[in-house]
Amino acid sequence: MYSEQMYELGSKSSMIREIFEYGKQRAAVVGPENVFDFSIGNPSVPAPDTVKKAIEELVLEGDPVLLHGYTSAAGDMGVRKAIADNINERYQAGVKPELMYMTAGAAAALCSVIRGLACPGDEFIAFVPFFPEYTVFVNSNGGKLVSVGVREKDFQIDLDILAAAVNEHTKAIIVNSPNNPSGVVYKEETIQALAKFMKEKSAEYGHPIYLIADEPYRELVYDGLEVPYLPNYYDNTLVCYSYSKSLSLPGERIGYVLVSPKVEDAQKVYAAVCGAGRGLGYVCAPSMFQFVVGKCVGQTSDISIYKYNRDLLYDNLTSYGFECVKPDGAFYLFMKASEADAVAFCERAKKYDLLLVPCDSFGCPGYVRISYCVQPDMIKRSLAAFEKLAAEYK
Amino acid sequence: MYSEQMYELGSKSSMIREIFEYGKQRAAVVGPENVFDFSIGNPSVPAPDTVKKAIEELVLEGDPVLLHGYTSAAGDMGVRKAIADNINERYQAGVKPELMYMTAGAAAALCSVIRGLACPGDEFIAFVPFFPEYTVFVNSNGGKLVSVGVREKDFQIDLDILAAAVNEHTKAIIVNSPNNPSGVVYKEETIQALAKFMKEKSAEYGHPIYLIADEPYRELVYDGLEVPYLPNYYDNTLVCYSYSKSLSLPGERIGYVLVSPKVEDAQKVYAAVCGAGRGLGYVCAPSMFQFVVGKCVGQTSDISIYKYNRDLLYDNLTSYGFECVKPDGAFYLFMKASEADAVAFCERAKKYDLLLVPCDSFGCPGYVRISYCVQPDMIKRSLAAFEKLAAEYK
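Output (structure tokens, whole complex):
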């Protein structure tokens, strides 16, 4: 009567969504100020004023037929030029607007890339911990997700562990840096070693192994850290970008796929990605927000609050004895559960109305994700609860 | 290296797009006023002022974090309620917001429905002439498109022709009324007969055959014609709607899937459609335009110009001896080519800078589509060219 596989996807909502819904119900009972919801990654800072100004200008001065009309399927060329120019200024990457495909956010970008690249039997590698929807995006679009462990002490990539997972079916390796949920940024030497390894393996198997750079958190880094721009380290790289976090526009669904000009047969790979987007029903990325991001190139929301939140949480939680990875970027704190079963740990945290996400579905049992894109006051109010939770394990 | 099938989709752009691009090149040579481009279905009337007002209100008064934030995956419940209430007022259909899924336009709606319903070997039927992207949407999402002829004198559905195509693999029948490209609205008695037939066949094969109502042109009808609301005629109906034409917002990608509450196992079918959307990478429909359409429920652009265009074209072209179907709705004139080969006919029309679309890819060789969502002045300037074209066949 209908597709069982799609019914499964539609009826089993993600763990994160479930906890988020529970938080809303709980807030109705004990009051929102007494629920400490660290579940969801919805930016807590507003879009910058330049976004508001851009919308006003476009609506007041723009021709509505053009503003709300179809752009070319790959996106407005003027917008693509503006974005490509900014990337080339920042990273000297020589990217081309002709190889840029505007998409409805990073999810659409990833699905288009995976569907565009996937041939029967192809495997796509993701390093743990990874965003659980990767499993959905890969397995629903012709690929098979292969989960690969990392170096536990710092969550950097371990080439020995990777080598054991790579084979002739490996089509691509997904790199998400800054990482959701660990907050880790892969170091330049890590990326250099990964690139060397992938080049060797591509030669060994006689076909390119693509690097898929999933970069919604690129702009969210702390302490002046530099995030290596992957097309500058590895030729066969496709970048998936989203403005959801950098401009606080997650609901507007706007981002892009960028095929590096150094990709082998770049034009054909680009056509395959655009063709996949066409088959998935993406006619064009939302037109007005294409023009908005085009006018806001190089801008970000005021992300200073995330650094404040990171320090507030990290310093206090570690002082209570919790074992945390210090985030280099993004807005997640990755913490070791105080017992082997992270789900049981999160259940215990619920007693104090602390809503944390167990990372089993992120490929990392025994850990939890604490999303700190929240109001600092909530973090302050939550600290006593974290302290009580820690005491339970003393 | 990449998916050949997706490369095909990405490298072979649609015939319509090709003609549209040719028109732009040609305009650069002979001047835009001398090119009569009837190729593309991009609304020529602006969105109504209420859309502009809604955007301004939302941006000026709304909370940007909520306005641009993720809505629930199925869409904002307030918006869904507003839309469902309006549908129930107009059609007494008893539809439920809980069975409504906001999508990035009709393309996303169709792909989600097809992917959600399709099981291996399933066939989806479309009546000729049909929007060529149906072939892409169905064949890329787990189904097989089956093209079915209609009654040539009036392009209404012919149950005898349909009966020959229906079998145990038939999962759904797509009905697009008003029709792109014929402009035909299926009469109430046609729909009643179709519903009776589908009910019998569902019983015969022991599983529901779904009716997929693709309705982007519902609001664009002339001469006070009523378009039957299909959920009121057939229980197992899913409606795919878009605001692209009714509110002139094609680039914004906003529409919905509505699962009729009378669908067998409606909740499960709805979950399968939402699950398919999740697998296709649709996180949520663009949030701000969800709120915009919620505020503009029941409104349309000023579509009176389309009626003026229809009469201007139909009356003149028939007077030149062209054989045309008089459109009941939408903004396309479906015309018989003056020679057997519509592609050759369109090439000949090009001599006069008349850009028409041959309907071979619409499943109707020998016909052309004339898109009259254009400025009336262009139609007036084009008439002499049409007259010369007609003279060639005298």
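Chain B touches chain A through 82 residues (CB under 8 Å).
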